Protein backbone atom coordinates (compact mmCIF):
# COMPACT_ATOMS: atom_id res chain seq x y z
CA UNK A 1 0.00 0.00 0.00
CA UNK A 2 2.76 2.44 1.00
CA UNK A 3 4.80 1.74 -2.15
CA UNK A 4 1.75 2.19 -4.35
CA UNK A 5 1.03 5.48 -2.60
CA UNK A 6 4.58 6.78 -3.00
CA UNK A 7 4.54 5.87 -6.72
CA UNK A 8 1.24 7.71 -7.14
CA UNK A 9 2.70 10.78 -5.44
CA UNK A 10 5.84 10.67 -7.61
CA UNK A 11 3.78 10.28 -10.78
CA UNK A 12 1.70 13.33 -9.84
CA UNK A 13 4.31 15.70 -8.46
CA UNK A 14 7.55 14.43 -9.98
CA UNK A 15 9.08 14.50 -6.49
CA UNK A 16 9.14 12.43 -3.33
CA UNK A 17 6.61 13.04 -0.56
CA UNK A 18 8.09 14.54 2.61
CA UNK A 19 5.47 13.13 4.97
CA UNK A 20 3.63 9.79 5.03
CA UNK A 21 0.67 9.19 7.32
CA UNK A 22 -0.99 5.89 8.16
CA UNK A 23 -4.32 5.76 10.02
CA UNK A 24 -5.86 2.34 10.70
CA UNK A 25 -9.41 1.05 10.46
CA UNK A 26 -10.67 -0.93 13.43
CA UNK A 27 -12.58 -3.98 14.43
CA UNK A 28 -14.59 -3.97 17.62
CA UNK A 29 -14.08 -7.17 19.62
CA UNK A 30 -17.02 -6.45 21.93
CA UNK A 31 -19.05 -3.49 23.26
CA UNK A 32 -21.49 -2.54 20.50
CA UNK A 33 -23.71 0.55 20.59
CA UNK A 34 -22.41 1.19 24.10
CA UNK A 35 -20.18 4.18 23.26
CA UNK A 36 -23.00 6.73 22.95
CA UNK A 37 -24.47 5.33 26.17
CA UNK A 38 -21.30 6.42 28.05
CA UNK A 39 -20.36 2.73 28.29
CA UNK A 40 -17.44 0.44 27.51
CA UNK A 41 -15.93 -0.75 24.22
CA UNK A 42 -13.04 -3.05 23.32
CA UNK A 43 -11.85 -2.39 19.75
CA UNK A 44 -8.46 -2.90 18.10
CA UNK A 45 -6.77 -1.05 15.24
CA UNK A 46 -6.21 -3.37 12.28
CA UNK A 47 -3.70 -3.85 9.49
CA UNK A 48 -5.96 -2.10 7.00
CA UNK A 49 -5.54 1.62 6.83
CA UNK A 50 -5.92 4.98 5.13
CA UNK A 51 -2.60 6.38 3.88
CA UNK A 52 -1.63 9.89 2.81
CA UNK A 53 1.67 10.87 1.15
CA UNK A 54 2.08 14.63 1.10
CA UNK A 55 4.25 17.71 1.04
CA UNK A 56 3.55 21.08 2.67
CA UNK A 57 2.44 24.07 0.59
CA UNK A 58 3.22 27.70 1.27
CA UNK A 59 -0.42 28.77 1.09
CA UNK A 60 -3.66 27.73 2.77
CA UNK A 61 -4.80 25.30 0.09
CA UNK A 62 -5.26 21.58 0.70
CA UNK A 63 -5.22 19.47 -2.46
CA UNK A 64 -5.80 15.72 -2.29
CA UNK A 65 -5.88 13.11 -5.02
CA UNK A 66 -7.72 9.94 -4.05
CA UNK A 67 -6.25 6.85 -5.68
CA UNK A 68 -9.33 4.78 -4.78
CA UNK A 69 -11.75 7.22 -6.41
CA UNK A 70 -9.33 8.45 -9.07
CA UNK A 71 -10.35 12.01 -8.36
CA UNK A 72 -8.70 15.18 -7.09
CA UNK A 73 -10.29 17.83 -4.93
CA UNK A 74 -9.07 20.85 -3.03
CA UNK A 75 -10.24 23.49 -0.60
CA UNK A 76 -9.06 26.74 0.97
CA UNK A 77 -8.51 26.65 4.73
CA UNK A 78 -9.64 30.28 4.94
CA UNK A 79 -13.00 29.46 3.43
CA UNK A 80 -14.12 25.87 3.89
CA UNK A 81 -17.49 25.29 2.29
CA UNK A 82 -19.80 22.36 2.60
CA UNK A 83 -20.60 20.95 -0.84
CA UNK A 84 -21.77 17.51 -1.90
CA UNK A 85 -21.09 14.60 0.42
CA UNK A 86 -18.12 12.50 -0.61
CA UNK A 87 -14.66 11.57 0.65
CA UNK A 88 -13.38 15.18 0.50
CA UNK A 89 -16.08 16.25 2.98
CA UNK A 90 -14.35 14.24 5.72
CA UNK A 91 -11.14 16.16 5.01
CA UNK A 92 -12.97 19.48 4.99
CA UNK A 93 -14.94 18.62 8.12
CA UNK A 94 -11.83 17.61 10.05
CA UNK A 95 -10.03 20.79 8.94
CA UNK A 96 -13.02 22.87 10.02
CA UNK A 97 -13.19 21.09 13.41
CA UNK A 98 -9.45 21.62 14.02
CA UNK A 99 -9.71 25.32 13.14
CA UNK A 100 -12.78 25.77 15.35
CA UNK A 101 -10.83 24.18 18.21
CA UNK A 102 -8.03 26.73 17.76
CA UNK A 103 -5.39 24.69 15.93
CA UNK A 104 -3.45 26.66 13.34
CA UNK A 105 -3.31 24.84 10.05
CA UNK A 106 -1.36 25.33 6.87
CA UNK A 107 -1.83 23.89 3.42
CA UNK A 108 -0.45 20.73 1.85
CA UNK A 109 -0.89 18.59 -1.20
CA UNK A 110 -0.83 14.87 -1.50
CA UNK A 111 -2.18 11.51 -2.46
CA UNK A 112 -4.66 9.43 -0.46
CA UNK A 113 -5.19 5.68 -0.68
CA UNK A 114 -6.62 3.02 1.56
CA UNK A 115 -7.55 -0.62 1.93
CA UNK A 116 -10.26 -0.29 4.60
CA UNK A 117 -13.44 -1.35 2.78
CA UNK A 118 -16.09 1.38 3.00
CA UNK A 119 -19.45 0.80 4.63
CA UNK A 120 -18.29 -2.53 6.06
CA UNK A 121 -18.22 -1.58 9.75
CA UNK A 122 -14.41 -1.19 9.83
CA UNK A 123 -14.39 2.61 10.29
CA UNK A 124 -12.92 3.82 7.04
CA UNK A 125 -14.30 7.30 7.75
CA UNK A 126 -12.75 7.57 11.22
CA UNK A 127 -9.44 6.42 9.70
CA UNK A 128 -9.69 9.18 7.10
CA UNK A 129 -10.45 11.81 9.77
CA UNK A 130 -7.48 10.71 11.87
CA UNK A 131 -5.22 10.64 8.80
CA UNK A 132 -6.18 14.23 8.02
CA UNK A 133 -5.58 15.30 11.63
CA UNK A 134 -2.14 13.68 11.70
CA UNK A 135 -1.31 15.20 8.28
CA UNK A 136 -1.88 18.72 9.64
CA UNK A 137 0.06 17.83 12.81
CA UNK A 138 3.06 16.66 10.77
CA UNK A 139 2.93 19.75 8.54
CA UNK A 140 2.88 21.93 11.67
CA UNK A 141 5.81 19.96 13.13
CA UNK A 142 3.93 19.64 16.41
CA UNK A 143 2.65 16.82 18.61
CA UNK A 144 -1.10 16.70 19.08
CA UNK A 145 -3.02 14.60 21.58
CA UNK A 146 -4.72 11.52 20.05
CA UNK A 147 -7.83 11.75 22.20
CA UNK A 148 -8.34 15.42 21.28
CA UNK A 149 -8.05 14.50 17.61
CA UNK A 150 -10.52 11.66 18.17
CA UNK A 151 -13.05 14.08 19.67
CA UNK A 152 -12.63 16.40 16.68
CA UNK A 153 -13.18 13.41 14.37
CA UNK A 154 -16.44 12.80 16.20
CA UNK A 155 -17.32 16.49 15.79
CA UNK A 156 -16.70 16.04 12.06
CA UNK A 157 -19.12 13.11 11.93
CA UNK A 158 -21.77 14.77 14.09
CA UNK A 159 -21.66 18.39 12.92
CA UNK A 160 -20.21 18.26 9.41
CA UNK A 161 -21.40 14.90 8.08
CA UNK A 162 -24.66 14.76 10.09
CA UNK A 163 -24.04 11.26 11.49
CA UNK A 164 -24.83 11.06 15.19
CA UNK A 165 -22.08 8.53 15.98
CA UNK A 166 -20.15 7.90 19.19
CA UNK A 167 -16.45 8.18 20.01
CA UNK A 168 -15.22 4.58 19.66
CA UNK A 169 -13.99 4.57 16.07
CA UNK A 170 -11.88 7.72 16.26
CA UNK A 171 -10.48 6.79 19.70
CA UNK A 172 -9.13 3.47 18.47
CA UNK A 173 -7.89 4.79 15.13
CA UNK A 174 -5.99 7.52 17.02
CA UNK A 175 -4.78 5.58 20.04
CA UNK A 176 -4.42 1.92 19.01
CA UNK A 177 -1.24 0.05 19.78
CA UNK A 178 0.42 -2.96 18.16
CA UNK A 179 -0.62 -6.34 19.64
CA UNK A 180 -3.24 -4.73 21.87
CA UNK A 181 -6.92 -3.99 22.02
CA UNK A 182 -8.04 -0.79 23.75
CA UNK A 183 -10.53 -0.96 26.59
CA UNK A 184 -12.22 2.44 26.53
CA UNK A 185 -14.50 4.00 29.09
CA UNK A 186 -16.55 6.21 26.77
CA UNK A 187 -17.61 8.50 29.61
CA UNK A 188 -14.21 9.44 31.01
CA UNK A 189 -12.32 8.52 27.81
CA UNK A 190 -9.82 6.68 29.97
CA UNK A 191 -8.31 3.97 27.80
CA UNK A 192 -6.37 0.91 28.85
CA UNK A 193 -4.27 -1.22 26.51
CA UNK A 194 -5.14 -4.90 26.82
CA UNK A 195 -2.90 -7.51 25.17
CA UNK A 196 -4.54 -9.95 22.77
CA UNK A 197 -4.54 -13.37 24.43
CA UNK A 198 -1.55 -15.46 23.38
CA UNK A 199 -2.39 -18.28 20.99
CA UNK A 200 -5.48 -16.63 19.52
CA UNK A 201 -6.11 -14.31 16.62
CA UNK A 202 -8.86 -12.06 15.36
CA UNK A 203 -10.46 -12.84 12.00
CA UNK A 204 -12.61 -10.21 10.30
CA UNK A 205 -15.30 -11.74 8.09
CA UNK A 206 -16.83 -9.40 5.53
CA UNK A 207 -20.23 -10.70 4.43
CA UNK A 208 -19.98 -8.58 1.25
CA UNK A 209 -23.31 -6.99 2.14
CA UNK A 210 -23.76 -3.23 2.53
CA UNK A 211 -26.71 -1.34 3.99
CA UNK A 212 -27.78 2.00 2.62
CA UNK A 213 -30.13 3.26 5.34
CA UNK A 214 -27.90 2.75 8.35
CA UNK A 215 -28.05 6.35 9.59
CA UNK A 216 -31.78 6.27 10.21
CA UNK A 217 -31.62 2.94 12.05
CA UNK A 218 -28.61 4.12 14.06
CA UNK A 219 -30.27 7.35 15.14
CA UNK A 220 -33.45 5.47 16.03
CA UNK A 221 -31.50 3.07 18.30
CA UNK A 222 -29.78 6.03 19.88
CA UNK A 223 -33.09 7.76 20.58
CA UNK A 224 -34.51 4.56 22.11
CA UNK A 225 -31.50 4.32 24.43
CA UNK A 226 -31.91 7.96 25.46
CA UNK A 227 -35.60 7.36 26.16
CA UNK A 228 -34.71 4.39 28.36
CA UNK A 229 -32.11 6.42 30.28
CA UNK A 230 -34.68 9.17 30.83
CA UNK A 231 -37.20 6.64 32.15
CA UNK A 232 -34.57 5.34 34.60
CA UNK A 233 -33.80 8.98 35.50
CA UNK A 234 -30.08 8.59 34.80
CA UNK A 235 -27.70 10.47 32.50
CA UNK A 236 -27.03 7.43 30.29
CA UNK A 237 -27.65 3.68 30.26
CA UNK A 238 -24.10 3.26 31.57
CA UNK A 239 -25.60 4.19 34.94
CA UNK A 240 -28.00 1.23 34.96
CA UNK A 241 -26.61 -2.08 36.27
CA UNK A 242 -28.05 -5.42 35.16
CA UNK A 243 -29.56 -5.80 38.66
CA UNK A 244 -31.19 -2.33 38.46
CA UNK A 245 -32.47 -3.15 35.02
CA UNK A 246 -34.00 -6.45 36.11
CA UNK A 247 -35.63 -4.83 39.11
CA UNK A 248 -37.14 -1.87 37.25
CA UNK A 249 -37.44 -2.80 33.57
CA UNK A 250 -41.24 -2.96 33.79
CA UNK A 251 -41.28 0.87 33.62
CA UNK A 252 -40.19 0.64 29.96
CA UNK A 253 -42.45 -0.16 27.06
CA UNK A 254 -41.56 -3.45 25.38
CA UNK A 255 -39.33 -2.28 22.51
CA UNK A 256 -37.43 0.26 24.60
CA UNK A 257 -36.89 -2.44 27.24
CA UNK A 258 -35.43 -4.74 24.63
CA UNK A 259 -33.03 -2.06 23.34
CA UNK A 260 -31.96 -1.08 26.86
CA UNK A 261 -31.41 -4.71 27.84
CA UNK A 262 -28.86 -5.04 25.04
CA UNK A 263 -26.89 -2.00 26.18
CA UNK A 264 -27.00 -2.82 29.89
CA UNK A 265 -25.93 -6.45 29.38
CA UNK A 266 -23.38 -5.50 26.71
CA UNK A 267 -21.65 -3.15 29.13
CA UNK A 268 -21.38 -5.97 31.65
CA UNK A 269 -20.09 -8.37 28.97
CA UNK A 270 -17.49 -5.84 27.82
CA UNK A 271 -16.14 -5.36 31.34
CA UNK A 272 -15.99 -9.14 31.73
CA UNK A 273 -14.30 -9.46 28.31
CA UNK A 274 -11.57 -6.99 29.25
CA UNK A 275 -10.91 -9.01 32.41
CA UNK A 276 -10.91 -12.27 30.44
CA UNK A 277 -8.37 -10.78 28.02
CA UNK A 278 -6.13 -9.66 30.84
CA UNK A 279 -6.30 -13.18 32.28
CA UNK A 280 -5.62 -14.73 28.85
CA UNK A 281 -8.93 -16.57 29.14
CA UNK A 282 -9.90 -17.05 25.50
CA UNK A 283 -12.73 -19.46 26.26
CA UNK A 284 -14.57 -16.88 28.38
CA UNK A 285 -13.88 -14.11 25.89
CA UNK A 286 -15.32 -16.25 23.10
CA UNK A 287 -18.47 -17.05 25.06
CA UNK A 288 -19.01 -13.36 25.76
CA UNK A 289 -18.70 -12.62 22.02
CA UNK A 290 -21.31 -15.29 21.25
CA UNK A 291 -23.67 -13.84 23.85
CA UNK A 292 -23.11 -10.37 22.43
CA UNK A 293 -24.25 -11.58 19.02
CA UNK A 294 -27.47 -13.04 20.42
CA UNK A 295 -28.17 -9.76 22.20
CA UNK A 296 -27.60 -7.70 19.03
CA UNK A 297 -29.66 -10.08 16.95
CA UNK A 298 -32.63 -10.48 19.27
CA UNK A 299 -32.73 -7.39 21.51
CA UNK A 300 -31.06 -4.59 19.58
CA UNK A 301 -32.10 -6.06 16.20
CA UNK A 302 -29.12 -4.81 14.23
CA UNK A 303 -27.99 -8.08 12.66
CA UNK A 304 -29.02 -9.44 9.25
CA UNK A 305 -29.53 -12.82 7.60
CA UNK A 306 -26.04 -12.65 6.08
CA UNK A 307 -24.38 -11.65 9.37
CA UNK A 308 -26.25 -14.36 11.29
CA UNK A 309 -25.21 -16.96 8.73
CA UNK A 310 -21.56 -15.90 8.85
CA UNK A 311 -21.55 -15.98 12.65
CA UNK A 312 -23.28 -19.37 12.75
CA UNK A 313 -20.75 -20.89 10.32
CA UNK A 314 -17.81 -19.38 12.22
CA UNK A 315 -19.06 -20.58 15.59
CA UNK A 316 -19.45 -24.12 14.23
CA UNK A 317 -15.73 -24.39 13.36
CA UNK A 318 -13.41 -26.28 15.69
CA UNK A 319 -10.87 -23.88 17.23
CA UNK A 320 -13.25 -20.90 17.01
CA UNK A 321 -13.74 -19.54 20.52
CA UNK A 322 -16.51 -17.11 19.60
CA UNK A 323 -17.95 -14.88 16.88
CA UNK A 324 -20.30 -11.93 16.55
CA UNK A 325 -21.29 -9.20 14.14
CA UNK A 326 -19.23 -6.06 14.64
CA UNK A 327 -19.69 -2.32 14.10
CA UNK A 328 -22.89 -0.39 13.55
CA UNK A 329 -24.75 -3.39 12.15
CA UNK A 330 -27.28 -4.38 9.47
CA UNK A 331 -24.52 -5.42 7.05
CA UNK A 332 -20.75 -5.51 6.71
CA UNK A 333 -18.47 -7.53 8.95
CA UNK A 334 -18.46 -10.10 11.70
CA UNK A 335 -15.48 -10.90 13.91
CA UNK A 336 -14.22 -14.22 15.23
CA UNK A 337 -11.71 -15.21 17.90
CA UNK A 338 -9.78 -18.19 16.57
CA UNK A 339 -6.89 -20.40 17.67
CA UNK A 340 -3.88 -18.89 15.92
CA UNK A 341 -2.68 -22.26 14.60
CA UNK A 342 -6.08 -22.89 13.04
CA UNK A 343 -6.47 -19.48 11.36
CA UNK A 344 -5.78 -20.72 7.85
CA UNK A 345 -8.01 -23.77 8.09
CA UNK A 346 -10.72 -21.58 9.65
CA UNK A 347 -10.65 -19.19 6.69
CA UNK A 348 -10.50 -22.10 4.24
CA UNK A 349 -13.62 -23.64 5.79
CA UNK A 350 -15.75 -20.55 6.51
CA UNK A 351 -15.42 -18.77 3.16
CA UNK A 352 -16.82 -21.59 0.95
CA UNK A 353 -19.46 -22.56 3.51
CA UNK A 354 -20.73 -18.96 3.61
CA UNK A 355 -20.67 -18.73 -0.18
CA UNK A 356 -22.59 -22.01 -0.51
CA UNK A 357 -25.20 -20.83 1.99
CA UNK A 358 -25.73 -17.30 0.66
CA UNK A 359 -24.40 -17.12 -2.90
CA UNK A 360 -22.19 -14.22 -1.77
CA UNK A 361 -18.39 -14.22 -1.94
CA UNK A 362 -17.04 -13.10 1.44
CA UNK A 363 -13.65 -11.61 2.28
CA UNK A 364 -11.91 -12.95 5.38
CA UNK A 365 -8.87 -11.25 6.92
CA UNK A 366 -6.73 -12.56 9.73
CA UNK A 367 -5.97 -9.28 11.50
CA UNK A 368 -3.00 -7.99 13.43
CA UNK A 369 -3.52 -5.29 16.04
CA UNK A 370 -1.59 -2.26 14.83
CA UNK A 371 -0.54 1.20 16.01
CA UNK A 372 -2.90 4.15 15.78
CA UNK A 373 -2.72 7.04 13.30
CA UNK A 374 0.75 8.56 12.92
CA UNK A 375 3.43 9.69 10.55
CA UNK A 376 5.59 6.78 9.38
CA UNK A 377 8.97 6.60 7.68
CA UNK A 378 8.89 7.23 3.96
C1 LIG B 1 -20.53 2.93 14.54
C2 LIG B 1 -20.30 4.24 15.29
C3 LIG B 1 -19.66 4.00 16.65
C4 LIG B 1 -20.41 2.95 17.44
C5 LIG B 1 -20.68 1.71 16.58
C6 LIG B 1 -21.55 0.71 17.27
O1 LIG B 1 -19.28 2.35 14.23
O2 LIG B 1 -19.48 5.09 14.53
O3 LIG B 1 -19.59 5.22 17.35
O4 LIG B 1 -21.61 3.46 17.96
O5 LIG B 1 -21.29 2.04 15.35
O6 LIG B 1 -20.91 0.16 18.38
Give the overall form: globular
Portion of residues within helices: 40-55%
Q: What is the CATH C-level name of the largest domain?
A: Alpha Beta
Task: Sketch the major β-sheet.
Answer: 6 strands, mixed
**Number of structural units classed as domains:** 2
- Weakly predicted, low-confidence segments: none
Give the tally of β-strands: 13
Query: What percent of residues are in strands?
Result: 15-25%
Mean pLDDT: 96
CATH architecture of the largest domain: 2-Layer Sandwich
Structural class: alpha+beta
Distinct ligand kinds: alpha-D-galactopyranose
Q: Give the spatial strand order of the biggest sheet.
A: 5-4-6-3-1-13
Helices and strands, in order, run as HEEEEEHEHHHEEEHHHHHEEHEE
Q: What would you report as the Rg, rounded to the nearest angstrom?
A: 21 Å
The count of helical stretches stands at 11
**Distance between termini?**
12 Å
CATH topological fold name of the largest domain: Ribosomal Protein S5, domain 2
Structure write-up:
- The chain folds into 2 domains: 2-194, Ribosomal Protein S5, domain 2 (2-Layer Sandwich); 197-367, GHMP kinase, C-terminal domain (Alpha-Beta Plaits, 2-Layer Sandwich).
- α2 packs across α3 (124-140), α3 (124-140) packs across α4 and α10 packs antiparallel against α11 (343-358).
- The radius of gyration is 21 Å and the shape is globular.
- It is built from 11 helices and 13 strands.
- The protein has a 6-stranded mixed β-sheet, with helices on both faces. A 4-stranded antiparallel β-sheet has the order 10-11-9-12.
- A hairpin with a 5-residue loop joins β7 and β8 (191-195).
- It is α+β, with helices and mostly antiparallel strands and 378 residues long.
- The mean pLDDT is 96.
- Residues 32-33, 35-36, 165-166, 168-169, 327-328 line the site of alpha-D-galactopyranose.
